[in-house]
Backbone:
């Protein structure tokens, strides 16, 4: 990209109060000009077509990522003003970029005052944004995954993934940071290429100084071979991966935590069922592809929720997770449904976090008052009766036989 990112980084670091992106590389480019202006706590981009203008808000920390994604390959000129200087990005059609800067003097008083307010607010906002894995930290797996550069800087196009990783670690940290266990045994069901599995191992061993043994399970032999080779490369002695099916998996060790991220459809239910029967202390699950209830659902009184395809699909997914949460509560877990990533990025953005009440000791009947167990179950069964579905986790728990 012939220095384009480096120049845009200079512009972003100057914290400009106004940016104009112009000269599209193609007549087919959707926007002929984009104006980005600093607001109190964010930037706002106004993208102009011939007849319309479209607005988008940008977090101050995301300015470089936005400029990189918007400008590179699409526009030939960027002008930015920071009050003292005008910064210019000039690119040839061959992709060769040049940077110029010229002194402009102070910006208008109103803009200066707004910038001072914005700077103060941004500083306060940034203080709140302290990540568990900070940018600038060299984490070998994240470098190999293309999320960090070699020196620990976040790759511009990977900021969303960087925030997602830290969001996941924050949710884990809330549940485990006060734990007293000498060693935690963790299973990651449906680990795939395991970027979060490696990060989880790094979090426990490097950030929290805790002993962990982590097993990653997946059906793909080539993926598992690659993961084991990577674990050996990083010196992660207590992290290993196995080929296996969630449904029939048997653990020959006590399981403290079960992780299942994007296990498809009912595979999530089998992972939750194993965690419950092992009395796992913690469960972290991000469900995916919840087709089961969508294929069964029928309704008489509330047919409005099943008439329109997209509503039916989303309601089925939400109902699936609500039922899972209630059944976990029924089985003795304090359960929360949390937003994992922003809904703008994906509608599959719910993380189920469940922490066993009383640790691993006692059964659910001793932990949860009978009236509460009855309420959790009745809420599930009323929903099942109304919509004529029967979820896998309910069947696996053999609740009918228990009653």
Residues:
């Amino acid at each position: 990209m012939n220095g384009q990112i480096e120049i845009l980084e200079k512009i972003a670091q100057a914290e400009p109060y106004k940016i104009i992106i112009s000269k599209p590389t193609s007549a087919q480019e959707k926007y002929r000009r984009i104006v980005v202006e600093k607001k109190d706590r964010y930037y706002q981009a106004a993208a102009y077509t011939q007849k319309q203008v479209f607005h988008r808000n940008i977090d101050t920390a995301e300015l470089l990522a936005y400029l990189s994604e918007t400008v590179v390959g699409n526009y030939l000129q960027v002008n930015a003003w920071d009050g003292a200087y005008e910064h210019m990005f000039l690119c040839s059609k061959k992709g060769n970029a040049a940077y110029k800067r010229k002194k402009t003097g102070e910006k208008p008083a109103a803009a200066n005052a707004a910038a001072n307010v914005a700077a103060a607010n941004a500083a306060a906002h940034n203080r709140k944004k302290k990540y568990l894995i900070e940018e600038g930290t060299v984490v070998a797996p994240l470098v190999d995954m293309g999320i960090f550069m070699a020196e620990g800087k976040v790759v511009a196009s990977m900021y969303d993934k960087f925030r997602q990783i830290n969001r996941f670690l924050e949710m884990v940290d809330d549940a485990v940071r006060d734990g007293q266990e000498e060693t935690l045994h963790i299973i990651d069901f449906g680990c795939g290429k395991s970027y979060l599995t490696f990060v989880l191992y790094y979090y426990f061993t490097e950030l929290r100084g805790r002993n962990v043994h982590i097993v990653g399970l997946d059906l793909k032999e080539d993926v598992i071979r690659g993961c084991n080779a990577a674990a050996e490369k990083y010196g992660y002695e207590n992290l290993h991966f196995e080929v296996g099916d969630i449904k029939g998996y048997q653990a020959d060790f006590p399981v403290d935590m079960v992780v299942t991220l994007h296990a498809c459809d009912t595979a999530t239910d089998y992972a939750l069922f194993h965690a419950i029967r092992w009395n796992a202390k913690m469960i972290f699950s991000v469900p995916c592809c919840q087709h089961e209830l969508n294929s069964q659902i029928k309704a008489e009184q509330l047919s409005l929720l099943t008439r329109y395809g997209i509503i039916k699909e989303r309601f089925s997914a939400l109902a699936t997770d609500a039922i899972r949460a209630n059944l976990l509560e029924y089985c003795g877990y304090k359960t929360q449904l949390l937003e994992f990533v922003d809904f703008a990025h994906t509608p599959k953005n719910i993380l189920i976090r469940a922490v066993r009440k009383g640790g691993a000791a006692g059964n659910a009947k001793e932990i949860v008052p009978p009236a509460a167990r009855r309420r959790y179950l009745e809420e599930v069964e009323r929903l099942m009766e109304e919509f004529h579905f029967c979820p896998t986790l309910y069947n696996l728990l053999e609740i009918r036989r228990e009653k």
The two ends are 66 Å apart (CA to CA). Residues 4-128 form one domain. The chain has a mean pLDDT of 86. The longest helix spans residues 309-330.
